[in-house]
Every structure is written in C-alpha cells, then in structure tokens.
C-alpha cells in the first residue's frame, strides 16, 4: 500500500461502499471522532484514531495536525521512516497546515491567529485578529496569485459569537491585508485555486461547492450535507460531507455525514458518494 512510504500501517476495516466507484487512493482525517483513514478503490482502512485535522503532502513528507485536549502537535512523516513532532504548542484547535516557500503556516482557530514557522518549528510571525478566543473561526488556507488567503465564519468580536449568525457572514480573506476576496458564504472551508486559475470554496452550511472560473462564471455543485475537505485527482474532485454539529441547522433535519462525494472535474457532474466509518470529515489528500 502506498502509505508504506510513510511507514503508516493501516488495518482494514471494511469493504468500500457507496454509490460510485473510487478512482483514486485517498487519505482522510477526522476530528471529533478521531482518526486517519485510507480509502482505496476496494477498502477502508484505519491508521489510528487520534483526532486529526489538517493534512499536507509536500515533496516526500506528509504533515499531520493532531489535536489533544490541552495542546496541539504537528507531525511530519518522511520516506525514510522517520516520524517527527516538529511543533507542540499550547494553542487551541489547530486546523490547516500549509507550506509556502521555506515557511510553514498553521491556523490556531481557538486563539483567532495564523502563525508562520520555520520548517524546524520556530515561530517567526503571528497574525492575531481582533476578537476573543474563537471569534472568527478561521479554518483553512491557500495561496491565490501570490497572496495567502484563509476562510472563516465572519469577523465577529467575541468567542463563538458567530453561532446562529453565519449565513452570509462567511468570507475568504487576505491574511495580510484582511481584504475580503470572496464573501456571502455560510461557514466556508477549503479555499483552493487550481493550476488553471479556477477558484473553489466549500460553502459548508449551504451544502455546496462553489466554483469561480472568472469573468462572472460562478457555478455551484449541490451536495448532500455539510461540505468540508477538498481534494483533486486527475479526473475527479473529492468533497467531504460531515454531520453538522447543530442538527437544527440541517434544512432536512436529517443526520447526514461521513461521506466522500465524487464530482467529475471537467463537467462538475455529481457522480455519487463513498461511505466513511465516521460522521465527520476534516481533510482529504490524494495519494496516487
């Protein structure tokens, strides 16, 4: 199995089930229920059940953000079999991890900060935004045309003041200038720009993926639940579906979650789903 490259030893849980065939091998993280999972076209396997949020493959290294109750770890796995904790911080609810140039960026959602590190784990810079605690619910990072952007639930002033107020308040913003580059969202995650300059964002609580091809060409793909986790294979887009934490926000009142949606990359046709053994998905990477 390809995860042997990082000396991860998944154990099989069950045969893959769903409404469509999986064309790629995926690594999927889960937060509240915890875990790191491998999905091949045939099976679902579990690496372990540690609460995991952000995932990143950079060169020959795999980075994984592991959440503990009182601290956070960022672990690097390399192709030589080394597993190294490069960051251990007393920060709250680390979400995404990204590498741009020679620097590593993480989101500390619970302290309303984005941090820049050296690749050895030394803190180089912090961007602290106004508000106490988890006031904006900053979550995911990407780099758009040379500038780093992040998604959040909105610019609120106090800890979790966004509860019940996120519809239309969600944004993607420039980390340095705080300029809004995509607005009118509801609990957004996973801003992404592909090699053709097409921009994507999970408009999570509206249960959809938004696609902006420029020149006013914005499309939506309606999906069956809370959208979080986004990855791209050669022919397919993969979007995670999680059970919303507050079921009353689910417009159908149903408990829907623990799915990976498969979308045709060219036509944006929704092809179907595969089933996860957990109700929440945080991140997805393609291992092909």
In short:
The chain is mainly β and 288 residues long.
Features:
five-stranded antiparallel beta sheet, Neuraminidase, 0% helix, mainly beta, four-stranded antiparallel beta sheet, 288 residues
Q: What share of residues is helical?
A: under 10%
Mean pLDDT level: 90
Q: Widest sheet: strand order? A: 1-4-3-2-25
Order of helices and strands: EEEEEEEEEEEEEEEEEEEEEEEEE
Structure notes:
The protein is an all-beta fold. A hairpin with a 2-residue loop joins β5 and β6. Strands 1-4-3-2-25 form a five-stranded antiparallel beta sheet, with no helix packed on it. Strands 5-6-7-8 form a four-stranded antiparallel beta sheet, with no helix packed on it. A four-stranded antiparallel beta sheet has the order 9-10-11-12, with no helix packed on it. It has a single domain, classed as TolB, C-terminal domain (Neuraminidase, 6 Propeller). The chain is globular, with a radius of gyration of 18 Å. Helix content is 0%, strand content 50%.
């Amino acid at each position: 199995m390809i995860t042997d490259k990082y000396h991860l030893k998944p154990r099989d849980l069950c045969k893959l089930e769903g409404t469509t065939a999986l064309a790629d091998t995926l690594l999927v993280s889960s937060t509240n229920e915890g875990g790191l999972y491998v999905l091949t076209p045939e099976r679902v396997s579990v690496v372990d059940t540690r609460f995991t949020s952000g995932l990143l493959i950079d060169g020959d290294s795999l980075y994984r953000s592991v959440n503990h109750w009182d601290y956070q770890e960022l672990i690097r796995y390399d192709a030589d079999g080394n597993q190294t904790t490069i960051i251990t911080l007393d920060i709250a609810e680390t979400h995404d991890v990204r590498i741009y140039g020679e620097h590593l960026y993480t989101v500390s959602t619970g302290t309303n900060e984005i941090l820049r590190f050296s690749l050895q784990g030394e803190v180089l810079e912090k961007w602290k935004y106004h508000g106490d605690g988890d006031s904006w619910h900053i979550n995911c990072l990407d780099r758009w045309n040379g500038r780093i952007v992040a998604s959040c639930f909105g610019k609120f002033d106090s800890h979790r003041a966004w509860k019940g107020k996120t519809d239309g308040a969600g944004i993607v913003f420039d980390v340095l200038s705080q300029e809004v580059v995509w607005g009118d969202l509801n609990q957004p995650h996973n801003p992404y720009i592909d090699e053709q300059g097409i921009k994507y964002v999970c408009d999570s609580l509206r249960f959809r993926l938004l696609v902006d091809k420029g020149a006013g060409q914005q499309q939506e793909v309606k999906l069956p639940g809370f959208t979080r986790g986004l990855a791209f294979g050669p022919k397919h887009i993969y979007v995670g579906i999680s059970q919303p934490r507050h079921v009353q926000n689910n417009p159908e009142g149903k408990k829907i979650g623990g799915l990976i949606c498969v979308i045709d990359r060219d036509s944006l046709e929704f092809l179907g789903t595969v089933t996860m053994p957990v109700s929440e998905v945080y991140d997805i990477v393609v291992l092909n």
